[in-house]
Amino acid sequence: MRSSEYINKDEVAIIGGGPAGMQTALVLSARGFSVRIYEQKEQLGGHLKGWHHLFPHGVAASDLLGALKEQVLARAIPLHLGQTVDHLQKVGEGWELWQGETVVGRAGVVVLANGFALFDARRKEEYGYGLYPSVLTSADLEAVFRKERPWPFGPDCAAPQIGFVHCVGSRDLKCGSPHCSKLCCVTAVKQAMAVKAFFPEAQVYCFYMDLRMHGLEYEELYRKAQVDYGVRFIRGRLSEAAPGQGKRLHVKAEDTLQGRPLHLQLDMLVLMSGMVPTFVLEQQERAVFFKEPVFGSGFVPVQGFLAAGSVVQQKGLFASGACKGPATLPEVFADAAAVACEVEQYLKSLKAVAHA
Amino acid sequence: MTPLLWKDYQKEVPDNHYFFVRSCIRQTFFPGAEAALLDILRNSLGLDIFEDRRHTTCTGIAYHCDLVPLETIMTVIARQLSLMTEAGYRHLLVSCVTSFGIYLEMLDMWQHHPEMLEQTREALWKSTRRTFELPTALVHTSDLIYHLRKPIADRSPHRLVDKSTQRALRVVDHVGCHYAKIFPAGGFGGAEFPSVLSGLAETFGGEMVDYPERRHCCGFGFRHYMLQENRGYSVSNSRIKFESMEAFAPDLILTNCPGCNMFLDRWQYTLAEMSGKTYDGEGKGIPVLSHEELAALMLGRDPWTLGLQMHQVQLEPLLDKIGIAYQARQKYSMVEGVAGVPREPGVLKVSFE
Amino acid sequence: MPKPDFGFSFAPNRALELSVPLLPEVQAVLEAEPSIRACMACGQCAAVCTAGVFTPLAFYRLVLQLWAGEVEVVGQRAQHCMLCGKCQMTCPRGVNIRNALLLMAALLPPKP
Lengths: 356, 353, 112
Description:
The complex is a heterotrimer.
Chain A: E1 11-15, H1 19-30, E2 34-39, E3 53-54, E4 59-60, H2 61-74, E5 79-81, E6 87-91, E7 94-99, E8 102-107, E9 109-112, E10 116-118, E11 135-137, H3 138-145, E12 161-168, H4 184-198, E13 203-208, H5 218-227, E14 232-235, E15 238-243, E16 249-255, E17 260-266, E18 268-273, E19 275-277, E20 280-284, E21 287-291, E22 317-319, H6 329-355
Parallel strand pairs in A: 1-2, 1-9, 2-5, 9-22, 11-18, 12-13, 12-18, 13-14
Antiparallel strand pairs in A: 3-4, 6-7, 6-21, 7-8, 10-19, 15-16, 16-17, 20-21
Chain B: E1 18-21, H1 26-29, H2 33-44, E2 49-51, H3 60-64, H4 70-87, E3 91-94, H5 97-112, H6 114-128, E4 137-140, H7 141-147, H8 149-154, E5 170-174, H9 177-180, H10 198-203, E6 207-208, H11 223-226, H12 231-246, E7 252-255, H13 258-275, E8 288-290, H14 291-298, H15 316-322, E9 333-334, E10 337-338
Parallel strand pairs in B: 1-2, 1-3, 3-4, 5-6, 5-7, 7-8
Antiparallel strand pairs in B: 9-10
Helix pairs in contact in B: 2-14, 4-6, 5-6, 12-13
Chain C: E1 16-17, H1 24-32, H2 44-48, H3 59-67, H4 71-78, H5 86-90, H6 97-105
């Protein structure tokens, strides 16, 4: 039996180096705790790395990421980049972090900040992602904005016809994702406006079921897209995409406000891929395994209120950010700070018990 | 999570030993299709395909029109299966897409409601003193032709290529709705990516055109066709398909369903008379072939023995493109002697002398 | 040969074809009253509409039909408007509905 003595009870291990992981680490570090970040990729940033600019104000994603990284470096937070953790083992009150047969870290508290995965758009086969080159995901379109991939239509196409499909892999029981992914609505609006900025002659359509503009200034962005950018919003989910004339796609939908089927030829179709879990927790008596999600897997379950960070049934294990469910960046930052406070309370309560 | 991708979905099809059941309407409209199928499977490929002359219609059309109740169709299907069982077969080969859907539906219902299977066994026993086993494989004839497409193509002297220009012929397919839309796992590629016909056409060297209304119903719709005053519904659906495929200038429509075959062929005449329009731009219509007819043509069977003169849209322009020889004078030679040349419709051209 | 009487006929395809460019007269209405673009089809205009109680007038539907290029229907239905202005008072998006309806009503040519 290993002693828990060799674990530093005050040390916090954060799994995931995206916005949630970095922010949790920064708040804990600022409050005097020793933290480490374990990130499976070679770089910090998570999905934020792939964004070009952010809603609602169009701030460059690289500016935000740069500022976050700078703070992480300034605080000299130890980073374990390229380090995957596939399960945790409980030792005394603390945890060992394992990758396969090897212990890669030890900590008194572990914070899961693994974020989300993008819904695999190939699974909505009727939209033809992976079949037709002019079908992109919202993440692919950010890569186009970042000049990491070309536009799917040629330079001769000055007035492209472009469609955005909301709720791809969200609110879809048949895909095993009953939830709303929350940020796709405003992302589609942001991207529609950006496309119009690139191609003023473009005709841009958003196919939505209802627009969930919940955040500050999102609704304003929607109105701006309609009035100033001429983006047309069609209430109805796309039924299918098929090859059309030339290199165009032929898409079908129902205009539910008019009660009529609708056909359209498009040069680019953008699928607003939803957020799905990156892993499911398999909880054992003294271990937690991170397993590949299966159909219908939920996000990390937490105790009590939805905003809480403490993972159900696991003392000393917390969850921060979008691994608990879809969240926008401001929500992730607020949540990360709240989770850091929960972690602090927890560590203090352990100390109080020890002194008693 | 590894997604199930219908595009790559392959159905399991046994290589040999089938009990064959016919379509009740196919032989009326396309009289050579089923004979050609049996000829190819038995004589070209040497397979064991058994047919029992006592088998009947599956009553599917009447069932879908609410004329035959569920208990009745179940018992009829049970009787077909009892013939299969009696002959010692467990692989069922179904000629018609409607029947194919019916067999899938009955098997599915019996699987979920074993008490209905028992009731059916009892009904069949009471009325005929017969018993039956369930098939281990349910295969549509287009499944089998697709499964055997390479050996067929290897034996074929022809290709789906314009002989004079070497251009691959453009093929639009129409897969019958009941082939995979009710039970996607019953068909190659499921309902979204049916490859059973496109794969066949490509094996013969044709170019598949994925036209927008590819998955639209041909308009048969059973009850929508049965009454004359409802037929506008049916012809409107076929028209949507023709309008959609027209832009791609197809050389051929390929189908796997007797009903679709019939409507996509005959409605071209009807629409031409109603609107003055044909969808090939030359007034001759777009030829329609079933999977067996295409396979038989590729294997060098005689077009007139195959019954192609019974099609509404005539096949000579397509035969000429592929380079299939035919005797124009033999076209209307029947067993009883030479039949009269049919009357020329107002719009659609059917003779090319 | 006389045309055969089939006893049935085909129905036109009622699908909207969005790829067709906007009609110039629709374009003109949108340019003359750009606030029409702000309509989000909430239906408040129709809920308060005096004429809508006994005629098929519903402004948000006219906007949808305008986008669909159905200028004749739009022109006809706009005639029902009594210009009372309740819709404009209630519109949460600030659409200048009265002007929009006058422009729509003008889509129908006057009787010679």
